[in-house]
UniProtKB/TrEMBL annotation:
Pathway where this protein functions: Amino-acid biosynthesis
Species, as recorded: Candidatus Aphodoplasma excrementigallinarum
Gene Ontology biological-process entries: tyrosine biosynthetic process
PANTHER family: PREPHENATE DEHYDROGENASE, PREPHENATE DEHYDROGENASE [NADP(+)]
Designated name of the protein: Prephenate dehydrogenase/arogenate dehydrogenase family protein
Signal peptide location: none
Domain of life: Bacteria
Amino acid sequence: MNIGVVGLGLIGGSLCKTVRKNTAHRCYGLDRDTAVVEQALRDGAVCGPLKEAQLGDMDLTAVCLHPRQTIAFLQEHAAAFRPGSIVTDVCGVKGAVVSAVEQPLMRAGVRYVGAHPMAGREFSGYAYALDTLFDGASFILTPTEHSDIGAVETLRALALELGFGRVVLATPRQHDETIAFTSQLAHVVSNAYVKSPRLFNQSGFSAGSFQDLTRVAKLDENMWTDLFLLNAGALTEEIDTLIAHLAQYRDALAAQDHDTLRALLRAGRELKEKSLAQER
């Protein structure tokens, strides 16, 4: 296949490098920063640059931009894709994106299916792209009742070809509600946690737990602002749930209530153990 990748950041760049490493497909890259495209060419990550006028030559196009940029690009270029070709995006929020772009692309005869590769780093940009980023990761597809089954199967097969460990199907709503807990809440907590006045006194006092909890505090605030606001309902629910649980711990501490605190800690441990057993 001729695969077009729009946006050669961490995910788009890693996609190109992985296509080159693991498949016989031909990958072409489009980025507003021409220096990034030139670097991708030097690296052999892409076969050539992708011009907007060449979108119609692609069998499959993956748009790897921030959510609002993705919506704008797909709405503006819907007629540029070849009818029958496959278009996907890799945004970490699906409901808002799918509802905004599915109909314009359908009217253009394009087979669109939303996707979300569950892989990333605390760094952004092509310079940090890896051809191993997706190894063993989950690849989520969010088809709707309008999605073409053949397009879903093509994307599923490509994901496995790229080295993803599993492909998960979910509705856009299921995706967003779950990702609010598994990813977005973790970024909020990490980002808020480092605002402690003791942050700059931690040297020599921190170990694995500090590193684990603070890793994703180093985020791209532009992208994550988009992601949070486009999934505000589900994320707000998760934050409210967390605040309620934290209040229970705080109250037990303030009351020096040994039994309640121990019960809270035991309940959390047991839930974690149950979730681990379910994954096996």
